[in-house]
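Course assignment 3, question 2. Fill in each field.
Student: A.L.
Task: Predict the tertiary structure for the chain below.
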Amino acid sequence: MVFPWISACSPRGDPCRSGHLEWWPWSCRDNEQFFLGLPARLEVVNTIADMSMYCVLTIAATISVAAMVWWFLHRLEWRSTFRITVERYDSKKRFSVELKSLRPKAEEDADSWMMPARKAHMSASNMDSDMARKIMLLIEEIDIWLFQLTRECVNFEMTYLRFQQERFHRRLEDLTSSVAAAGLGIEVQDAVIHFRSEAEHVQRIALLRSRVYRLLLDRRFRQSGLCKKAKRIQAATENQAPLLFVHWADIEEKRELPKFGSPNGAKELPDLLQLVSTLLGVSCLRAERHIVPFFFSHRWLRTRTSSWSGHPDTESGSKARRLVTFAKWFMELAARKGLRCEVVFWIDWCCCEQDDIEKMKFGVAALPLFIASCTQVLTWRTPDFDRRCWLMVERLLCYSFCEGGLSPYAIDESLPCNDDDDDDVEVDFALQGNSIAARRGSEDSLTTWQVKLGTRWTD
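Answer field:
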């Protein structure tokens, strides 16, 4: 029954008026007015309507006050975090260091903009004028903004980029014009130009991180296919770090991991779809369904030096040969179940910029998006696999954003290859425990992330 209190407050309704027009929810029967099928008086209905409106307004006001209190507490928490970061900032410590002094490396030395900023700041400090003091204050103000951007969380970056971006650009313009008006030397002006370039790059990276954060929160992005993900990643990174994959056949042809930018290396999605369409004899529109993208988590086996950037594989191409073997095994396993697929890999050496440091930072910032575009994870087991920080970060990202992050596949040096010395060895293995073992007739099973305790791997 709807509104039973109407009939309780007015057991008899008002008499029907002559010429009364019936409209829902009012009606007239037996010379008596009805409201929603109940006898009612107009005065009672109006009173109940007024009371209901007051109740709705009271609830809306309560929700508004609660939202304001939440916003205020959230803002207070953000300001406290901002205050902690500001308290960590020490301009004297960051700018009082001699450029050519022999000393231990400090935290601020890792900031790419600090060297030109110190040079311009030191040149201005040697001058005694209002313009020089203005230049020093501008450099310190810009430096503290960059300090916060590189050390704060994503929420701070989004708030900063929303409210402080135009002010940041005005400060950079003021700094450039002030240095030119002060008549400083060409070297100082070049240092300021370098400082401005580094500052704008830091801001672009912060903007990219905020875009990555929003994309990962977007359910439509997480549930979309490879083509749509590739387009949105390309737009988010401003085409500085597109989504690339390397096909297993290209690794087999080169007999090594192809470096980023090398011919017949990692491909963008349109070229990859065309290749899969040719190999499987399907249309390009259906080729996306047959691609199984793997994220390859591994450590580099040849470490870098001061004159060499290092290499992820051995000189004999151990990883490359075993990646090909794994891809063939996976496709054969899928074929036994009546599925046709092509395996592709996302590998940092093949799919991310390695020579241009600025573009490499874009690729590192977009790494969560690349992992979210993969459906499976393949790891290269080494004794220190679970103790390396970057591999732990990749494990966390895979667990959070990749469908197969909870149960990754694992290979290591013990995986036999068809091109090993013993040509009669037929590779038929199953994934069990902490690595792939060459076993005949064993059943397939899933692996999980494991921790090494002493000499034993445990789930």
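Instructor remarks: Residues 280 and 340 are 8 Å apart (CA to CA). Residues 42-88 form the longest helix (47 residues).
Grade: pending
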